[in-house]
Amino acid sequence: MLDFILISGDRAIFNPIFGKAIVAVRPGILKGTGIPTVNKNKICLVGDEKQVIVPGCSYTSPPNVTPGTGTLSIQSLAPNQKARKVKSKRTAVLLKGTTFTAKFQVLVPAQTPTIPPTPDPIPIYLGTGFFTTTNMQVKGT
């Protein structure tokens, strides 16, 4: 099925719910490495999503209501976000698709407001996200 090809400058939007953690999300920006361009921006290839890293996001995870911080990234793509036929440099291009699996890596654990405070024991939370694109012309499959 045809879908829009992602290009440099497109955004990865993270949903704020990561299991029991609530993350103050910010979008990640894609940087394409493909040779062809769309609207003077390089197209994105499978693997470019690994460069989307959003550091310094605060979070809470009840009962740990004193905020902690961590980093957002894309863990894996949905099958409909990888082109089956369109390639650049022998690598599949990225498509807008549906939702990807996101990862929130805790760097400073959220804590309970007790004395002494108890840190959040979970180091990684999984969630979801989706891509938005400014490319409304070129599609691939």
Write a structural description:
- The protein has 141 residues and is mostly beta strands.
- The chain has one domain.
- Helices cover 0% and strands 50% of the residues.
- It is built from no helices and 14 strands.
- The chain has strands at residues 3-4, 11-14, 17-18, 21-23, 28-29, 37-38, 41-42, 53-61, 64-76, 82-88, 91-94, 100-108, 124-132, 139-140.
- An eight-stranded antiparallel beta sheet has the order 3-4-8-9-12-13-2-5, with no helix packed on it.
- A hairpin with a 2-residue loop joins strand 8 and strand 9 (64-76).
- The protein is elongated and about 60 Å long.
- The protein starts with a strand and ends with a strand.
- The mean pLDDT is 96.
DSSP helical segment count: 0
Category from helices, strands and their pairing: mainly beta
Portion in helices: under 10%
Which strands sit side by side, in order, in the main sheet? 3-4-8-9-12-13-2-5
The overall pLDDT, averaged over residues, is 96
Strand content: over 45%
Morphology call:
elongated
Spans of at least 5 consecutive residues whose pLDDT stays below 50 are: none
The major β-sheet equals: 8 strands, antiparallel
What Rg is obtained from the alpha carbons, in whole angstroms?
17 Å
Query: What count of domains describes the coordinates?
Result: 1
Number of strands: 14
